[in-house]
Amino acid sequence: MHEEFLHYLWVNKKLPFTQLKTHLNENLEINHFGQFLQNAGPDIFNAQISIDQQKWAGNIEIHIKSSDWYAHHHEKDSNYDNVILHVVWENDSPVFRKDNSEIPTLELKNYIPLSEINNYQSLIVSKTWINCENHISEIDAFIWNNWLESLFLNRLERKSEFIDKRLLETNFDWEAVFFEMLAKNFGLNTNGECFYELAKSIPFSIIRKESFHVENLEALFFGKLHLLEEAIEDDYYLRLKKIWNYLKLKYKVPTTMVQQPQFFQLRPDNFPTIRLSQLLNLFANKQNLFSQIILANSYVEIKKLLECDTSDYWKHHYNFSKTSKSKSKTLSKQFIDLLIINTIIPIKFCYEKNLGKLNIEDLIKLLEGIPPEKNSIIDKFFEFKVKASCAFETQSLLELKNEYCKKNRCLKCAVGLQLLKN
Fold first, then answer.
1. 229 contact partners, CB below 8 Å, separation of at least 6
2. How far apart are CA 79 and CA 200, in angstroms?
3. CA 149 – CA 152 distance, rounded (Å)
4. What is the pTM (predicted TM-score) of this model?
5. pLDDT (tens digit per residue) in 20-52
6. Cross-referenced Pfam families, in alphabetical order (predicted)?
7. How far apart are CA 104 and CA 23, in angstroms?
8. 3-state SS of the chain: helix, strand, coil percent to 5?
């Protein structure tokens, strides 16, 4: 038995209202089930009950065993002084308030039908991948679509915590935070953290001042990564080295080593040298990029704003030591789509939320114009007849798998609740 199941029974009123008695055989009526807030303190707030026609108003605590009250040290916590009912699966110990009066206890195990318990247990018993894999495709379309929207909103709320924290640290310098998030996502999974720490390590006031000279930006970033310290006879390399030596003295840039970028097992087009050059050229050639991104509402507008190439040098290089066949290295459509999903959407969400002008429908519409992402999680959902037609749906499915299925939060999931009702 899990406490989450008892929460489910209470919140969804799965109790025989006319038959309830306390552990002392007193008649118990639930006049108001209260609010399940999941905050610190009792599980249920502002409930109303009657015990032998005596009315009580206050909070309710739910446990598997009544002795859990003492195991969790609630007797020492003033937040629990106003508990009027202790709801448990098994009453194995009397529980007392600080004034030594006994808290009425409702023992549930004799009130819940076996069918309800079997339904719950069949749902939470792990299958090969997710608990509901045999039935998830049968969920009503209206419930499913509403749940996808809730999942997407949850995902954005969770991602926004990281951005909101950084905004506070930068005194709400939106441009700086936007640039850091862009850097992180230009680095992809392999170099994302390295690029993010790199962007943070150079004061954005310097980046802003030098943003009109892409060579200066490349010198700053490659220099900070200690990639300009070898004895390489290459005109561009030597020029960047000279600029770096000047800029680090001019701005007193700390030369402390940040995390080193990884080249190993990357396709050449994903080398950190190439991705950094693309990022810095984007920032240098698209002045006021943040403002333009915020004002843009359509996929076409945003895609055009994010289109960029490397500096000329990197069109025939992947690193400083060797030339390669010359080719343009513009951002692919797939890469731009990833930037929109992982950078633009979260930033727009945070910005609109801060202004009090959030329009979630516009963000969903933007993602509906992007093809579905391809990864092992989406492929696995497809095996169980759950098909995604756009990036909005794949983002929601990723949230479902990582934040609900992996954590066995079936009773917090619209799919799990619907299957229990069925």
1. none
2. 41
3. 5
4. 0.83
5. 999 999 999 999 999 987 777 899 999 999 999
6. DUF2851
7. 7
8. 55, 10, 35
Other Cβ atoms less than 10 A from the Cβ of 42: the count is: 24
The pLDDT value given to residue 238: 96
Q: What are 50's strand-pairing partners?
A: 29, 55
Residues 29, 49 contacting (CB under 8 angstroms): yes
Indicate the pLDDT class of residue 201, thresholds 50, 70 and 90: very high
> 174: Cβ–Cβ under 8 A, 6 or more apart, which residues?
167, 290, 347, 351
Q: How much is the pLDDT for 95?
A: 93
Among 287, 262, 114, 145, CA closest to 207? 287
Residue 171 is encoded by which pair of tokens?
């005194």
Identify residue 66 by its one-letter amino acid code.
Answer: S
Q: 124 or 265: whose pLDDT is higher?
A: 265
Structure tokens at 184: 């992180």
Contacts of 298 (CB under 8 A, 6+ apart): 366
Find all residues with CB under 8 Å of 277, minimum gap 6, and list them.
218, 310, 311, 313, 314, 329
Nearest to 149 by CA among 387, 340, 393: 393
Residue 264 sits at φ, ψ, to 5 deg, of -60, 130
Residues 304 and 284: their CA atoms lie apart, in Å, by 15
Q: Which residue has the tokens 């409930």?
A: 47
Amino acid identity at 44: I
Q: Round to whole Å and give the CA distance between 155 and 20.
A: 40
Distance of CA 323 to the CA centre of its chain: 41
**At CA 267, angle to CA 192 and CA 283, rounded to 5?**
45
CA 350 to chain centre: 13
Residue 258 φ then ψ, to 5°: -95, 175
Angle 348-222-279 (CA atoms, 0-180°, nearest 5)? Answer: 25
pLDDT digits (tens, 9 = 90+) for 363-417: 999 999 999 999 999 999 999 999 999 999 999 999 999 999 998 888 889 999 9
DSSP secondary structure letter of residue 371: P
Query: What is the DSSP code (8-state) at residue 14?
Result: -
Give the residue carrying structure tokens 């007797």.
75
Tokens of 185: 């996502």
Scan for tokens 């919140």, then name that residue.
11
3-state secondary structure of 45: strand
